[in-house]
Amino acid sequence: MVNDMVTVMPSSRGGVEITPQEKVPNYREAQTVLEMRDVSVSYGAFKAVRHVDLRIGEREITALIGPSGCGKSTVLRALNRMNDLVPGASMTGSVTYHDQDIYASQVDPIEVRRHIGMVFQKPTPFPKSIYDNVAYGPRVHGRKLSKAELDDVVEEALTGAALWDEVKNKLKASGLSLSGGQQQRLCIARTIAAGPEVILADEPCSALDPIATSRIEELLLELAKKYTIVIVTHNMQQAARISDRTAFFTAELDDDGERFGRLVEMDQTTTIFNSPGDRRTADYIAGRFG
Amino acid sequence: MSAQSLNTPLVLTRRRPRLAELAFNFAIRACVFFALGFLLALLAFVVYKGWSRLDSRLWEGMPTARKSRIDTAGVQSAILGTLWVVLTTAAIALPLGISAAIYLEEYADNRRWYNRILELNIQNLAGVPSIVFGILGLGIIARAFGLGFSVITAAITLALLVLPTVIIASREAIRAVPSSIRHASLALGASKWQTVWRQVLPAAVPGIATGSILAVSRAIGEAAPLLMLGAVTLVLFNPDGFDSVYTTLPIQIFNLIKAPFDGFQELASAAIVLLLAILLAMNALAIFIRNRYAKKW
């Protein structure tokens, strides 16, 4: 996996330096799953993110990094139409999923979200049992499963989220009785059980302690064997540790003095951290701003 | 160097009593005592006055207007009338009120003028005096719709009366469900309706139940609108359907107290004790539900 191939060490500049030990195999060949072309997102009259182009490769972990207010979460939510839920939000440009425009008028956002799931910053278990949390996706999708089949789906998802051993004897306990890290893994299990191809994660570790964080990171690396993952993080070391590709966003002022987010560059993570093509990326990674 | 000089001793004990604080403390305790004391005195008075009639005659006997029959009279038809009216009221007001609350909280777009007008008017409706609802019931439901002085007329009128309370309480309960729950559900590919039905409503049930019970208990104690709707007559038999004539406990109490004979007042007091017991029990249930299902997040 990727974290075996790069070493993260504190550099003399106070930032992070990555030493690539091996080229990420098949990087160029990764199939494009999601693609954004010239995407701008507005909240009311305010154009929060402008002119973003990016590609998400199949079974890769793509990290979106940048200072706060750079629009990385907005971009993430545009990938599965979660911005639809924000009153007044609108979007221009196109987002394609396997070459289908997910914002086309005949597209049902509910179907989009069944293929492109999301894990949030704060763990949000439903106030229901652990079992019912995980079984929620299959149930709302109207899949006709027998009790035994649903049991299997739940066990598989919890195993996939590295939570099964901790909860197998208390599946009827409330999801809220778990620790923060366990709750977040429950949310990941819940997302897996819904059967998506892509998992979007919006700062999934920012509410967790370092031990829980490293477990989630290991889990994401494991999941990347089967799923395409896009993760927003404000933690550069995290991006360096787990991602294959990194998109660096920043906030800028336009001519009217309005702050907006834009994509500076996107490349292989090792390239972004070692020889970024843009001065701003280099400064951010070296810890000189943000 | 420390700010505390070496020459002056450090004094941490209170130097003088804080009069304003003491006075305020006393005033708020007096207010609580006054309110509670008044309620307790009232309760003690009705229990004392109605003690001789607090027995099975109360629910086994029928009301009477005759002095000679007062010893065996009770309020059975009023108890059953209250049950009929209030259960029908709840059956009408709760589905309507909860559905309206779901619409206003989950579906209505607040930026649309008609939704804002709707909201404003629900608030206004909650402040309309109940006698006005009685006149509405008389003019429209009893006469224009031809439903007459019946259980269903009373129930529809009371349902309209408590509807704003049910809507407002249900809206607050629905609004208290964090949006993160909705987003998590939608992100798993659930539809809006599935999200409301499977996540928002179950989480809001304690709040909705509490508000609904309080609304229904208001309907039980309400007399004013029913004065207009034919409940005042002496009813010597139990209601047997929605179109049946009826009387209710508050109205029956009103009738008994008006009577200028001995024995009627005592029966009225006993009926008041019964009515208060029902209301306090319902409020206690509301509090129990609220505490039992306190917020889980």
What keyword list fits this structure?
heterodimer; A: 290 residues; alpha/beta; Rossmann fold; 4-stranded antiparallel beta sheet; 12 strands; 29% strand; globular; B: 297 residues; mainly alpha; MetI-like fold; 2 domains; 11 helices; 69% helix
What does this entry show, briefly?
The complex is a heterodimer of chains A (290) and B (297). Chain A has 290 residues and is α/β, with parallel strands linked by helices.
Give your account of this protein's structure.
The complex is a heterodimer of chains A (290) and B (297). Helix content of chain A is 33%, strand content 29%. Chain A is built from 11 helices and 12 strands. The N terminus of chain A is likely disordered. In chain B, 69% of the residues lie in helices and 0% in strands. Chain B has 2 domains: 35 residues; 226 residues, Orthogonal Bundle (MetI-like fold), CATH 1.10.3720.10. Chain B is mostly helical and 297 residues long. In chain B, α4 packs across α6 and α10 runs antiparallel to α11. The interface between A and B is medium-sized, with 25 and 22 residues.
Largest sheet of chain A: 6 strands, mixed
* Low-confidence region ranges of chain B: none
Determine the CATH superfamily of the domain at 2-20 and 30-122 and 197-285 in chain A. Answer: P-loop containing nucleotide triphosphate hydrolases
Q: Which CATH-level-2 architecture of the domain at 2-20 and 30-122 and 197-285 in chain A?
A: 3-Layer(aba) Sandwich
The total count of helices of chain B amounts to 11
The count of strands of chain A amounts to 12
